[in-house]
Amino acid sequence: MLGEATLYGMSITFSKLVMLLLLPVVWSILAPSDLGILGVMQVLQSLLIPVISIGMHDAVMRFFPEWEAHERKEKAATVLAAVAVWGAGISLVLSASGSLFESLFKTFPANPYFIISVWSAYFSAMTLVPLGVMRVEGRVKRYSICSSGIILTQSALSLVAIIACPGGVIGYMLGSLLAIMLWSLMLVLPMLRGGVLRRPGKVLRELAGYSLPALPTTILDSSTGFFDRYFLDKYVSLSTLGLYTVSQQLGSGFNIFNQSLKSAWFPFVFRLVGGREDAPRLISRYALYYVALLAPIALGVAVLSKELLMILAGAKYAGSYAFVPWVVLALYLQSITAAMGRGLDLARKSLYWPLVSVVQVGVAILSLGLLVPLHGATGAAQAVALTAGARAAIQIGLAHMVYPRPFPLIRFFAMWVIGLATFYLCNQLPTFGLLIDVLVKIAVIIVGSLLVALAAVGRSDLLNLSQLLGRQKSRN
Asked: What is the distance between the terminal CA atoms of the chain, rounded to a whole angstrom?
């Protein structure tokens, strides 16, 4: 299982890294105001996908192994057909509701941006059931190729569209729509050719009974990324919103490593729980190592993005750096939640998930409503980090309550102090020139990261390690 997760993680890491490397080309062609529109539309798509899919792909993955082997493909195709019909109906209604979007966002018109986003979300949702079936059947190689292929094709066609056509952000969005439409057809049509059930009611009711109770929580989780754009639309220009979007794109450099590590972490945790009596203690220890491993990546992105922007984009997007440290802080807090917040699933206490989502949404609305009018886009970035911190606090607290295990408070606090001190020191260094500044900051980050690692390991583990090395040396 760990090998499968690693294969998937490597393929997704590679495809997202390619997408990240193409960003400077996009920045050179699109204006900051274009990226402001694009940022809103991409967040809107992430909000619409669970509404259109209604979580049925998760239900298919849950029940697929329990179905008789001879009826699995037919039942999965039935669910896919139902999602296609439901999603098409919802998408048609939304496409005719541009006035609703324009009542929420004032700085640019709904059409054609809103319609393109709705149908991009529809075709994205259509790929989820076929991909879910691949995953549950253990076809990890094919699943990895398709998942990576979607990302790379969308990036490539979007880039070709803005280079070959003078459509700006509209061309970018149409290229992405064309790519996901093609992948959707390639994945969906082979599944539907196998036929569907003549009486699908029982299967659909069973799966809907599993997916619908969790749907409000999923939508709430997705909506938090939508709120910052909503508030920013009221208080800042489209160009500033574009700079904010660029800061999040830079932050995605950290997220690439986080997602790769997380894809291996989840199955590793479940293996520990299933096979070790001391699993709680080990999970606590390795979660701290997880957080420490990501510290140098977080520091590198938060500190060096300033120089990276000057090299890749010049003065055009230099203003984005003001938001980058807050964006990285929010992403790092999310990674801490992923590492140390496992517990509700391990103890099968899913009834607490709505509480986590409600707290997250409440903090997001309150903090954005207070900080954006005062500090604009910087306030939005601060509010997002504050929301991530609130989510981390409540989820980690609940996880330790329902699945008790030690919490290494002193080590955790020491890691934070060292990390923050490293970031502060890097930003207080005098300027010597671009290349020298980068080299000096890298040196400081390396030293700080080593100290974070030592704090994570702790004195007792260091003694155990030194004793182990000593015994090995004496044997030799």
From this structure: 35
